[in-house]
Design brief:
Blueprint: H1 34-43, H2 54-57
Length: about 60
């Protein structure tokens, strides 16, 4: 917030802001390997994706 405060007016973006975080690599976790996933979560942030069918996408509950 201090680096890029909200001003409440229309203006151009300041693209010269220094990134707050980054990464220098990644590792894959084997599908279905819960232990490997638990170890990864204990070490660093984890991103995940799932493949779903039409029934899941249409679910409203």
């Amino acid at each position: 917030e201090d680096d890029y405060p909200f001003k409440g007016i229309q203006q151009t973006c300041n693209n010269d802001i220094v990134a707050a975080a980054g990464f220098d690599g990644y590792q894959l976790v084997s599908p279905g390997d819960e232990q490997q996933l638990l170890q990864a979560v204990a070490q660093q942030p984890v991103a995940a994706s799932i493949v779903v069918g039409h029934d899941f996408r249409a679910f409203k509950g």
